[in-house]
Amino acid sequence: MVASAALCLAPSARAQENYFVTYSHHMEEPGNLEIENQSVIGDPRGGNAFLANATELEYGAKGWWTTELYLDSQWTQHESSIFTGFKWENRFRPLAAEHWINPVLYVEFEDTSADKTMLEVVGHDGIGDLADRNDRSQREREIETKLILSSNHAGWNFSENLVAEKNLAAEPWEFGYAFGLSRPLSTRASASACTFCRENVDLGAEIYGGLGDASRLGLQDTSHYIAPVMSLRAPAGATFKVSPGFGLNDHSQGFILRVGVSYEITQIVSKLRGQ
Fold first, then answer.
1. CATH architecture of residue range(s) 2-272
2. Are the CB atoms for 150 and 95 separated by under 8 Å?
3. pTM of the prediction?
4. What are the φ/ψ torsions at residue 146 (nearest 5 degrees)?
5. Which of 71, 98, 105, 245 is deepest in the core (most CB within 10 A)?
6. What is the DSSP pairing of strand 224-233 with strand 216-217?
């Protein structure tokens, strides 16, 4: 029974590593810790070029619960390098078995300022926010929720996210979306271990953007992006991924580049205890 469950969850585990913004239904294995750094590079009109980083510590608390801490920072040309804050994310999977559609509930608290990681786009977020000068005095304390729906079929993963975010300073709810699809180049494992085997390379794409807010719901003055994604899983446990993103309207940043690297440590607590 345990082996069957592991086989069912294996495709979704791969799919989670294939996106930057979109979430699939993969949950971190209980006891495992994944360390990841994601970077985004942009050069907004009317502003200065920037490099933003999100360092993530993802831990599998239970089979149905994954918790994650983000430490965010950014450097903006001709301005400064700053630590922008932290985010605490929790994902809950109510259905253990694999289904045609697998729901996951997501809730996050963030305390940031001048954040440019673009891990979500909601409301009327746009190029003007990326062009603003670094200012740590205006902190944003927000609650973000997501409904994650994800499916695996014939080697493909299809993931849909609906986002709702609320600034705790009495501002209206903001909404957004993210959709992703991905597939390994091969669904058959090679006879011997290798780095550049076809089954270790995944290709996909994601599209994401804002849907306005509670006072002005819709697509007016919202930004939207489309981005192909490629990921490579190394046999030693590291995953590398890259994604060039393209803005789809004048309210969006014309081009962004995302790169990421992650490494998974299995059963971290047992190893720290020397077991």
1. Beta Barrel (2.40)
2. no
3. 0.91
4. -140, 145
5. 245
6. unpaired
Q: Which helix (H) or strand (E) holds 250?
A: none
Assess contact for 120 and 178: CB atoms under 8 A.
yes
Contact by Cβ (8 Å): 180, 132: no
Question: What is the DSSP track for 42-62?
Answer: E--TTS--EEEEEEEEEEEEE
For residue 272, what are the CA distances in angstroms to 30, 32, 33, 245, 275?
A: 15, 12, 12, 39, 8
Domain ranges of the chain: 2-272
For 185-254, list the strands marked E by DSSP.
201-213, 216-217, 224-233, 238-247
**Tens digit of pLDDT for each residue in 181-190?**
999 998 887 7
Question: DSSP 3-state assignment of 173?
Answer: coil
Q: Is 272 helix (H, G, I), strand (E, B) or coil?
A: helix
Helix (H, G, I), strand (E, B) or coil at 167: strand
Tokens 């954040």, located at residue: 115
Q: Which residue has the higher pLDDT, 193 or 91?
A: 91
- Amino acid 194: pLDDT: 75
Structural tokens at position 102: 């697998």
